[in-house]
Automatic annotation (TrEMBL):
Claim: Signal is one of the keywords in the record: no
Keyword annotations of the record: Polyamine biosynthesis
Highest taxon listed in the record's lineage: Bacteria
Protein source organism: Micromonospora globispora
Name the UniProt record assigns to this protein: Spermidine synthase
One GO-annotated biological process of the protein: polyamine biosynthetic process
UniProt-listed Gene3D superfamilies: Vaccinia Virus protein VP39 (3.40.50.150)
Amino acid sequence: MGARFEELAWRETPIGEISLRRRRDPALEVDVYEVKLDDEFLMSSLFPVAEIELARLGLAPLTGDALDVVVGGLGLGYTARTALEDPRVRSLVVVEAIEDVIDWHRRDLLPFTNGLATDPRTRFVRADFFAAVADGTGFDPDQPGRRFHAVLLDVDHSPRQVLHPSHAAFYTVDGLRRLAALLHDEGVFALWSNDPPDPAFQRTLTEVFPTSVAHIVRFPNPLQGRESANTVYVARHRPTGP
């Protein structure tokens, strides 16, 4: 067993100081990996259930093989790793704004996502997800406007609690329409949220996508000795034609 606490990486970024740390939880007898932005916790390896379900629920409605998938926000890598476990996934573009986060995975600092960076289907794109949607260039620098079968997003705390004010416009009707233009017909947009289902945001989704569901994902919280829950929104793009 190593040190009880170790800061594995740290960097000043345009949205604050981001850090990756490992600590030993003596009560649970496990190593816990955590991502912090300034003094705020963003992700913890103690609570990966909803990040995993973001990929599973987001890919579940799709039919056929040779799926091209985007993950917005890399973090601890659970969503990307789970997407690659689906044999139908042909390619995975991971859009991450912070190069250091990508580097964590290239250096295999996170044992539970070993192999993510070396999987031949994976491509890391260092870019601002929200800017890529807003200007219409999309997620593939080599093919502007390229369409995908699924976009799985986990960056902000929720549509109402964003990490940067520039993200807010994405969660409007106009922002979601720009995202829908980057999806194939009947493609899926799935979103992780730390908050309970938001009726106002669900109404916004239904103005753009003909079908949408807010899944409540429950999981045990060993730190608080109770059950916690996140939300995964899954919306499906309308097909063309009559």
